[in-house]
Task: structure prediction
Amino acid sequence: QVELKESGGGLVQPGGSLRHSCKDSGLTFSAYNLDWYRQDPGKEREWVASISMSHNVNYEPSVEGRFTISRNNRESTLYLQMVDLQPEDTAIYLCHAQRGSRFFWGQGTQVTVAP
Result:
């Protein structure tokens, strides 16, 4: 059974930092392309960042330079380091793993940026 278990959300003040983790159990982790998405209630799910099997990275423009996606295949863990967080970054953050037509989602963790 595949599980992507996330941790690292929370409440932070504007300008603050957080690091998300997404640990896999049940996948051949290194064989999947990985992403972070976020979703605010009432809005569509938004892609945030991706890292390929070969560690190529891409970012949504509003987070580039502030967020860093990385992966540790030996530990089967995906990371999202977030700095200079702003209120508009408030959302549920979800990890996503995909290989061809197979894909899996984490359960999501809440990030709230407020004074």
Observations:
- The first strand starts at residue 3 and ends at 7.
- The chain has a mean pLDDT of 95.
- Residues 95 and 112 are 17 Å apart (CA to CA).
